[in-house]
Amino acid sequence: MENEYMENKNVATFVKIVEFNNFTKAADSLGYSQAAVTAQIKSLEKELGVPLFDRVGKRIFLTQAGKTFLPYAIDLLKAEEAAKNSVGVSEELEGELVICSASSYASEVLPQILLRYMHLHPKVRITVKVSDYLEDNMHKLAQGELDFLLCMDERNAFPDFASFAEKPEPVIFVTHPSNPLLKKKRKPLQDVVTSNFIVSDREIGYSRLLEKQLQKKGIELSPIMEMGSTNAIINVLLGGYGTSFLPEYTVRKHIKDGTLARIDVKDINVDMYSFFLCSRDRWINPVMQAFIDIVNKSE
């Protein structure tokens, strides 16, 4: 008599393949051989009576049946985890967590969150990748190479991904206190962005949005310098050169101690938010859920 019950191991393998969109990467992640993973999927497809994947050359795609089954598979794994947690003493978390962060958050925001996480879950291995190249980061998140991405952009900028811990992030004009521009009673926007102006990489959200708003006002953004590192820009400003447009949290301590100064400009407003992103299609395992819980409690 055939087994009447679906093997959750096979369901977990199916979800992992969807996360990576690749049988080999899923097998490596699970610690199985590729042959074992292929056998598990064939077994699951036999149980369901439908193919779950189309294979075109070296690429795989979910069939319509696979797309329909995916949310039920994720719910099944969640229910299994909830059942385990409802009885007995919960085991100490083990596993791996892979996070990518914009450079400014990696040094200013993420360390405190990670310290709390490591204190509570010392057996979890954490990898933090630092990158300001959003398009590449989003691709890796979609492919399952990252668990979470911490970034800053407009609200609801990525509707295809799940987001949490959204927080408004003011972006301000800043310069060295010796800048003669600060002595002017009125500080026209045109003067500010042409006063040895330094911008972050224009692929970064706030620089991109600033340029769009300037274009609407008929002002061309022609920076004297474009730099991929927020910390590098801050060091140039601290040396007494130029003005820039940066997230307030990155320069807060320098403004407080008087080594940098804010330039109040009335006729421009860029609304930015920081948030964590993760794939909507993947199962949030206990290691990931623990991270989400800590981040949400940090708000």
Backbone structural class = alpha/beta
Query: Strand order within the widest sheet?
Result: 4-3-5-12-6
Which CATH architecture of the largest domain would you pick?
A: 3-Layer(aba) Sandwich
Rg of Cα set:
24 Å
Q: How many E strands?
A: 12
Overall mean pLDDT? 88
Helix share, percent: 40-55%
Stretches where pLDDT falls below 50 for ≥5 residues? none
Any idea how many domains? 3
State the helix count.
12
Q: So what's the overall shape?
A: elongated
- So what's the CATH class of the largest domain? Alpha Beta
Largest sheet: 5 strands, mixed
How big a fraction of the residues is strand?
15-25%
- CATH third-level topology of the largest domain: D-Maltodextrin-Binding Protein, domain 2
What string, H for helix and E for strand, traces the elements in order? HHHEEHEHHEHEEEHEHEHEHEEH
Distance between the termini: 54 Å
Task: Offer a concise description of the structure.
Residues 6-63 form the HTH lysR-type domain. Keywords: DNA-binding, Transcription, Transcription regulation. This protein has 299 residues and is an alpha/beta fold.
